[in-house]
Amino acid sequence: MDDQAKDTTSRNSEPSRWTLRPSRSLTRRLIWLAAGWIALALILTGVVLTSVFQESALRRLGSSLNETIDEVVVASSITPEGQIFIGEIRDARTERLLSGKYWMVAEPDGKGDMVIIAGSESLGGSVLEYEPGLVDRLKNAFGQTVSYSAEYGPKGEPLRIAASVKTLPGRELPVVFFAGVDRSDVDADTRQFALVTWMALVLLGLGLVAAVFVQVRIGLRPLYDLDHAIAEVHRGRSNRVGGSYPREIQPLADQVNLLLDHSQETVERQRTHVGNLAHALKTPLAVMLAEAGNQEGQLPDIVRRQARVMRDQVEHHLRRARAAARAAHGLGESTPVGDVIDELAVMIERVFDEKGVEIDWRAPDELAFRGERQDLQEIFGNLIENAGKWCKRRVRVLAGPSVPGQMVVVVEDDGPGIPEDQRDTALKRGTRMDEETPGTGLGLSIVDELVRAYGGRVTLGVSDMGGLKVVLDLPAASG
């Protein structure tokens, strides 16, 4: 069996109502746009809240450090020798070794650096880290406190340090007072706050995106309903777009219905024109055949032969034009396949009753052809009649769905079949495989023309019954 590969792509398959197509989905575009703005707003909110919390905590540390500096300044005095003496400091933490709270007194050396004069017991002989250029910053902010962070303290802890330049009575050179405190707790609180804040913002963001998703889906639901209604027309389950839509969408639905009405009117006009043309051509041809039929001679024979050819050609092209018009504009048409096959099988079995032809057919009850009944009858009628004509006794017709929106029909017989090298020729118009058998040679050609008009395909092969196997790919209406 040399069947051609079936085309597995269904041009008429229904797209999912909820599918979000990348870059072309209005739903996805709206959701992503809203999600982007929500994410940006929440990120900025998280950064601002974390920064405000951290600054607030550092300000509290700064207040404590300023108090320590003030206490050290108050406890400082100048000895008769001009030396700085630091009296008793009441803050016990500064007296306990590596307690996490420190103070230090230094003086600028005139070269951009500092000379350490005194320090708290808690320093344990270490010094507080200070930034390069701090002396210049302090001079520019004379009398004010300059705060900064240091990564490593006397025991390796992160520090928050405050420094301020003061002048002491009896001493001309300014003195720099430092105070530092372990900021580990502040950093931990900031991280905890940031974690809780970001978790809350993420949950809020997800909730907002979900709300936007629901809002968009509800807001665009009429568009989905309209798409579904148009798909129903396309699948042959309805002739018009029904339903009630918001006033922004109702004009679109009305225009679609007007277009469907216009298409139907156009098809009807074309059918009328085709019928008129058929009648106009058939009558003169019938007259010619009648006049030539009673006469003998070469000329009447030529007239009879050519008139029959002209009649067959007219029938062929008119049939093709009608099928093309129906296929192009036949939205909403749906024909049950089983009913048509059953009707034809009974009729053709009676035609070939003397031959004892048996037609075995199977088709699901819900299977329907997306097209007009007349065309399906002509397709099946030609194939089943051809099979009955050439079979020995048995004809088999099987129909069923294939890919979504498509169906496959197989017509087989136990006759002689068609050789492989003649199968393409058999589909050509007017070709007859056996000149002795009555017929016009247009049967398979008509089938091929009609099937192609509906976007389908005809494939000839060898049946396992020994005869011809005809495989049809046709559009199916959704059940």
Question: What order do the helices and strands come in, and which of them pair?
Answer:
Elements: H1 26-74, E1 76-78, E2 84-86, E3 101-108, E4 114-119, H2 134-140, E5 145-150, E6 159-166, E7 175-182, H3 184-219, H4 221-234, H5 250-293, H6 298-329, E8 335-336, H7 337-351, E9 358-362, E10 368-369, H8 373-390, E11 394-401, E12 406-413, H9 423-426, H10 443-453, E13 457-462, E14 468-477
Parallel strand pairs: 9-11
Antiparallel strand pairs: 1-2, 3-4, 3-7, 5-6, 6-7, 8-10, 10-14, 11-12, 12-14, 13-14
Helix pairs in contact: 1-3, 5-6, 6-10, 7-8, 8-10
Description:
- By secondary structure, the chain is of the alpha+beta class.
- Helices cover 48% and strands 17% of the residues.
- The protein has helices at residues 26-74, 134-140, 184-219, 221-234, 250-293, 298-329, 337-351, 373-390, 423-426, 443-453; strands spanning 76-78, 84-86, 101-108, 114-119, 145-150, 159-166, 175-182, 335-336, 358-362, 368-369, 394-401, 406-413, 457-462, 468-477.
- The strands form three sheets. Strands 8, 9, 10, 11, 12, 13 and 14 form a seven-stranded mixed beta sheet that branches.
- Mean pLDDT is 81; it is low at 1-23 and 432-441.
Q: Flag low-confidence runs.
A: 1-23, 432-441
Shape: rod-shaped
Q: Between the first and last Cα atoms, what is the distance in angstroms? A: 32 Å
Structural class: alpha+beta
Order of helices and strands: HEEEEHEEEHHHHEHEEHEEHHEE
- Strand fraction: 15-25%
Describe the largest sheet: 7 strands, mixed
Mean pLDDT: 81
